[in-house]
Design goal:
about 140 residues
Length: about 140
């Protein structure tokens, strides 16, 4: 019976439990998009971004006792040689597609949060929204 119990426990063992998957994916998205030209979570240098990303993932895995997840993340995503394949921070410039997406997201936020009642706002009103309403949100993120 002990062999059967071990087999059942192996079947129930999850490499990464469901409750952690979304958080880990979100951290990886943040690590992917971190770049010296984009203000955000870490000191804006390539090396400091990598240090921050590795430390954040490692501490999360240690805190939640996800040893196997950390080994997988290190070997396949975060170790030297792999990090350079996917992280935007290793490149001096941002990809055009990435900057286009950021600009589109910026204007989508403006339209949905501030201009949803105005079809064709005056330029002075738009400037007021940018400086008085939107800029403080971005300053808080800095």
């Amino acid at each position: 019976t002990s062999d059967t119990e071990e087999d059942n426990s192996d079947e129930q063992h999850a490499f990464c439990p469901d409750i952690h998957r979304e958080k880990i994916i979100q951290m990886m998205v943040n690590h992917l998009n971190a770049h010296p030209m984009i203000p955000g979570y870490s000191v804006p240098t390539r090396d400091r971004i990598r240090y921050w990303a590795v430390k954040e993932m490692y501490l999360y895995c240690v805190k939640n006792e996800l040893r196997e997840v950390w080994v997988y993340m290190w070997e396949n995503w975060y170790r030297p040689g792999r990090w350079e394949l996917w992280a935007h921070s290793v490149h001096k410039d941002l990809p055009v597609l990435q900057t286009t997406m950021m600009v589109e997201a910026h204007w989508c936020k403006i339209k949905n949060n501030f201009l949803h009642h105005f079809h064709k706002p005056c330029v002075d009103f738009l400037i007021w929204i940018l400086t008085a309403k939107l800029a403080p949100i971005y300053y808080q993120k800095l």
